[in-house]
Structure formats: C-alpha cells, structure tokens
Amino acid sequence: MTASDLDLLKRFARDNSQDAFGEIVRRHVDLVYSAALRQLRSTQLAEEVSQSVFSDLARSAGKLKPDTVLTAWLYAVTRRTAVDFIRKESRRQLREQIAVEMNTMNATANDWAGIGPLLDDAMAALDETDRSVILLRYFDNKSLREVGESLNISDDAAQKRAARAVERLREFFSKRNVTVGASGLAVLLTANAVQAAPVGLAAAISGAAVLAGAAATATTITTTKVIAMTTLQKTIIGAALAAAVGTGAFEAHNASQLREQNQVLQQQITPLTAQIQQLQLSLNDATNQIAGLMEENAQLGSNSNNDELLKLRGEVTQLHDQANDPGVKALKSVADKVAILKQYLKQNPNRNIPELQFVTDKDWADAAWDSAMATEDDAREALSKLRETAENNFLNKMRDAIKKYLAANNDVLPDTLYQLEPYFDVPVTDEMLQHYTLLQTGKPDNSAALVIVSAYADADYDSEHSMSMRSAGGSRFNRVSGAVEAASRAYSHDNNGQAASEASQITPYLKNPIDTVTVQKYLNEINAGATMANPNH
After folding, report:
1. Which member of 300, 329, 388, 509 lies 3.0 to 4.6 Å from 490 by CB, making a disulfide possible if both were Cys?
2. pLDDT at 6 over 50
3. Would you say residue 404 has pLDDT above 90?
C-alpha cells in the first residue's frame, strides 16, 4: 500500500529519513515549480522558490495538523513565498530577468495564454475547500475517489464540488474577458497547470531540505547556510545528487505524467471527433447519391435511350428537392442538437437524473427543438425541459404504484416512498426515489399534494413538481433569466426608464456573476418582448 504524504512526513520528522522526504518532493515538485514559475516568469527564481518551500516543509514536518491536505499547504506556501520574492527583488532587476527568461520559454496555446497568467489569482479567490478540490483533481490528477478520500467525502460529493469549483474559476476568468467553457477549462487545467520541473531539481531540493530539517532540530545556522547558497552551488549539488539517484527514474516519471495527460485529452477529443464524423457522413449521403446519378446521367448522354435519360434526370431533381426540403433540414438540425445535448450530459453527469432512462426519442427531440444549442446556457435550459418531462412521467408512474399499495394495505399510505418499489410497473431504485418527498401518511387526502420533488439536479435550471392522487404536474424555473430580468429593471429604474441594450450596462446590478454571452441573450429576449408589447416605442 502506498504511504500517504502525512505518513512520509511523520517518518521524516521521526527518523530524518531522506528517502521519505525525497518521495514527497518527487510527488509535488512539479506543482510547486509550476506555481512559482507562473508568479515569477523566471525559471531561476522558480527554482529558488521551490527550494525555499520544501525547506519550509522540512522545518514544519512535525507540526502539521493530521487533517492537512499537503497539496493545498504547498500551493499556499509557494504563492506566499513567490510574492515575498517579488517584493524583495528590485523592480529593474526583476524586469530584466523576466525579459530574458520569457524569451527562452516556449509559447503556449491561445486559450492557456489567457488563463495561465490569471490562474493563481483565480485560485486565491476560491475558498479553501474549492481550492483543495481543484488542486487534487486537476493539479495532482487524482481520481474523484482519491479526492473524496483526501477530503473525507463521498465520490459523488467530490464530483459535485469539482464541478462547482471549476464553474467558479470559469466565472472569474469570464469577468476578465477570458471566455472558456467549464469542460474546456477542466481539460486546460489538466494539461497545463503543472509542468515538469527541471531535471535534478527534485534531488537538489531533497538534499538541501533534509539538511534544513536536520538543522532545525539542533541549530538554525546550517539552514541559513543552505538557503544562502549561490545558484551555482545549488546547481552543483543538484547535479551530484541527481547522478546519485538516477535521472532516468525522474524522466520516466515525467513521461508517465505526460502519457496520463494525453489520455485525458484523448478521452475528451474522441467522442467529439466521432460525433463530427457521423454528422459529416450523414450530410454527405444525399450528395453522394446525386453524384452517382449524375455520373450515370453523363454516361447515358451519348446513348439514344432518351426515356431512360429523362427518368434519371427526374430522380436527380427529386433528390435535390429532398435535400433542400425544409422538413428534412429541420429533422437533421434537431438530430444534431440532440447529439450535442447528449454529449453535454455525458460530460456533466451531475446534471443527470436516473428517471431520464424512461424518456423517449421524441422527448429528447422536443427538449432540443427550439434551442440553439450554441452555449452552455442553451444546454442547461434544454436539459431542464427534459428533466421536467422525465419527472412528470415518473410521478404518474408513482401515482399508479401508490394506488396499488393502497389497495393492498387497507387504503393506508406507506411510511416512506421506498416501500413503493415492488408496486411500480417499471424497475425503480432508491436513487430514483431519494429526491422526492412524501407529504402525507395514513389515509390519503385526494385534494392535497401527496409527493413533491425536493432536490434539484441544477439549482438554476430545473422544475418544481408535485403529485396528488388526481394528477401530476409542475413548472420549470430559470433563475439565471430571472436574475438578468431583475438587473435590467434595476438599471432602467436608475436611468429614467431607459432600457439597457448591452450586457455591460446591467452587470453591476447582478447579485451573482453570469457570463456575458448569457446575459446578452436574455437581455435581447427582454427587449424583444418589450418591443412587441409596445410597438410604438
């Protein structure tokens, strides 16, 4: 069984084990180095900060609390140390050093170029729990189960916290005119947040930090000398130690990390590639048929069989008409939208409910029919429609199950909804029933609500449902649209009744951040509705 970070630290504090501390450095040096490099834009200074951070860890090894998440502790100390470095360095020297280093650094992808410089400020804006989730999930590339174990929460709770934390990061970037989707941001973090530290740095840090830790128990003189080493001295020591432990193992670890990152990216890209290929094949079917008939038409052009020629021309015309028929185009468009909606749901499983297994293909098409499916807001609205249908259908099935239960139990209601499972006409699970609440017990009151939906898969886009012994129904809500409408009214009130036309005008009136594209969409709908209601204005 692999030892935990805290177990290794205890062994280092107790036995001054260089192997234990070296393993900790190996696990976390890339994260520390990357965080320092983003702050300082200097590989040399990033190495200095990395050594300082692990020296601090060596001195604090026996003092950390049992519930400390070491990844989060190292990240916080790295940021603080980097800020101290910036403050202490002369501005002129720092500018010169950054300019030289930036000329030697490789260019990054366009998306990451906008996100990277802001990442650590965005991380600092998160609360401690969200920051720990991001660090463990996307910086350390841990599975949801490992994240849950580190934070003492369930896998499902870890998934929800990770989704929430990514969304808050996305909102931070959106406010600074860096637009990226939640799923895209997760991929970028996984691929770019942590990059390999220079070969030999881990070995150099391990040796220097162990010296620092040992000195801390006796005297601070040795520690001071270690920190005061020149860069040349550290480089020499690092090279010697790297040779001793073998750079091959270090490089193999880096190669393994790159392979894992590549697999994550491939998992994101493969479904989209397959979807695009399928759509392209569908689009080309009619064109291929037309091309084949045109070729036969050309071959028959020199023959005297005019009747066959006219027949083929008629078939070509018919195929052209079919390809351009508005009905055919509409069906193709809806099929594309449904494919996008299913892909979005696959990438955001926290917005799924098990009752969706009962919806039909027509229900999927109805949910996507009127949606542009161009933004995340569009997808969340469409999923809200689909969940509304699924929950309404399920409540009707539940009402039938309750009727059977009443007939078998002297017209007395069950104590919990879980007792209804044997009476459903379809297989149901506790997971399906857990977000519904039974409001009555004993003899049923047929005129009052009996069951309600008490939990939402999406707090901003969902439905409020209830069921009585007579019927089941509900209505969807869109709190994002409502927030934009309230902000629009507040703007109009403060500007002598003038309506806002740009998202930036009402952004200060929003209580919670909403991305600009979504705000503009709902603002346009509000203004269009106002124009229809008052055509003379």
Report:
1. 509
2. yes
3. yes
Residue type, 170: R
Long-range contacts made by residues 58-66, C-beta under 8 angstroms, separation at least 24?
58/12, 58/21, 58/209, 58/210, 58/212, 58/213, 58/216, 59/212, 59/213, 59/216, 59/223, 61/9, 61/10, 61/12, 61/13, 61/21, 61/213, 62/9, 62/10, 62/13, 62/14, 64/6, 64/9, 66/6
Distances (CA, A) of 92 to 84, 95, 154: 16, 5, 50
Q: Which amino acid is at 334?
A: V
The DSSP annotation for 479-519 comes to HHHHHHHHHHHHHHHHTTTPPP-SHHHHGGG-SS---HHHH
Structure tokens at 94: 């720092």
Q: Considering the entire predicted model, what is its pTM? A: 0.41
Cα–Cα distance between 335 and 341 in angstroms, integer? 10
3-state secondary structure of 463: strand
Judge whether 213 and 21 are in contact, CB under 8 Å: yes
The end-to-end CA distance of the chain, in Å, is 73
C-alpha torsion angle, residues 528, 529, 531, 532 (rounded to 10): 120
In this prediction, residues 242-246 reach a mean pLDDT of 41
Torsion of CA 491, 495, 500, 505, to 10 degrees: -60
Single-letter amino acid, residue 45: L
Q: Which residues contact 236 (CB under 8 A, 6 or more apart)?
A: none
Phi, psi for 36 (deg, rounded to 5): -65, -40
Burial class, 179, CB count within 10 angstroms (exposed 0-12 / middle 13-18 / buried 19+): middle
Residue 443 per-residue DSSP state? S
